[in-house]
Task: structure prediction
Amino acid sequence: MPKPTASIAHIGIAVPDIEGASAFYRDVLGLETKPLDDADGASIQAISLGDSDIEFLQPETDTGPVAKFLQKRGPGIHHICVRVDDLDSTLARCREHGYRLVDEEPRVGAHGHRIAFVHPKSTSGILIELTE
Result:
């Protein structure tokens, strides 16, 4: 059986203003933004950095997870998304090793990708998103 591989898919950054947050990457670094998307009560602006993206997450409501994160912690890294070969097998290994899951089963996230989150209390305080 081949060893599973993983890579950084994106880093999600909670921001109060997508336009202001993406300006440096767009105006100074000359990077192109991807079309806006939304998920979990947030607008999402992705910017490609090679094989990985930075995703700016701006709350659309005052009650969603990104809004709560901003209220509690202010702007900053919200989560790290790890691309895995097989999301279902990875979730099974999480359960087998006792990791607390936010999503017991994969769901559809931004850009139509299958995703699932691992609770930060299980991963040294970092919210981990898994995707294929």
About this structure: The radius of gyration is 15 Å.
